[in-house]
Amino acid sequence: LDAAGVVRRELRTRVEVTVAHGEVGKVENELRAREVLILGVDYGAGHVVLSAAARPGAVASIAELVAART
After folding, report:
1. Is 13 within 8 Å of 60 (Cβ atoms)?
2. Which of 9, 21, 10, 19 is nearest to 58 (CA)?
3. pLDDT band of 1, cuts 50, 70, 90
4. Contact, 19 vs 50, CB < 8 A?
5. pLDDT tens digits for 42-62?
């Protein structure tokens, strides 16, 4: 039991962000800098969908980030 670590759990809101291929790297880096967890990346024919988990209070700022980039 002494060797067991502490696991921190926190509430996250799952979001999907759709961006153009040319913007995905910049947007993903900015999301990671805001401590948003990237759960997956799906490359489509004309766009990329980032699946992410954000702190509930960060969802509005993510929407602003994407609006500024697109």
Report:
1. no
2. 10
3. low
4. yes
5. 999 999 999 999 998 888 988
What is the arithmetic mean of pLDDT over 21-44? 94
Q: Rounded mean pLDDT of 24-28?
A: 94
Evaluated on CA atoms 32, 34, 35, 41, the torsion sign reads negative
- The answer, as to whether pTM is greater than 0.85, is no
Count, residues in the chain: 70
Q: DSSP strand E in the chain: where?
A: 13-19, 37-43, 48-54
| Residue of 57, 62, 64, 25 whose CA lies nearest to 41 | 25
Q: What is the DSSP letter of 3?
A: T
